[in-house]
Here is the input.
Amino acid sequence: MKPPLSSLLSRPAVRYGLASIAAFGMDLALTMALRLGGQLSLTLSAAIAFIVTGLVFYFVHEFWTFGHDSSTVSSGRLVRNLTSLGAAFCVRVGIIGALELMRSPGPSLALVYFGLGAAASLTVNFLINKYWVFTRT
Here is the structure.
């Protein structure tokens, strides 16, 4: 019998959730560091952070989230992942940019904007990754 944690971690949705929490933390920290330290707009900060985090977490997803015994870097999956990231990027940056155009955010409102964009892009990215990028062929 598998220990409960091992059984829980055998589910891709659980691993995706854990990886997403880590990615969200990295993404948020980098976005806010760029916005506050680099004096960039929230939209540009979120765009840069999304790209960096997305590339890092491709490897996490490849080898852990959706990984299996024969996991390896695949140029096909990498291209599909970049396509998925492109769609999620457009959703995230589009939402944040639209909100920022309506009202320039202070620090608290910037977190709300970031959270709304992140939630939408996370949903898009999960669905595309699960059903297209990391399907076993």
User: Anything to note?
Assistant: The mean pLDDT is 86. Helices lie at 4-9, 12-37, 42-65, 75-102, 107-133. The radius of gyration is 16 Å. The chain has five helices and no strands.
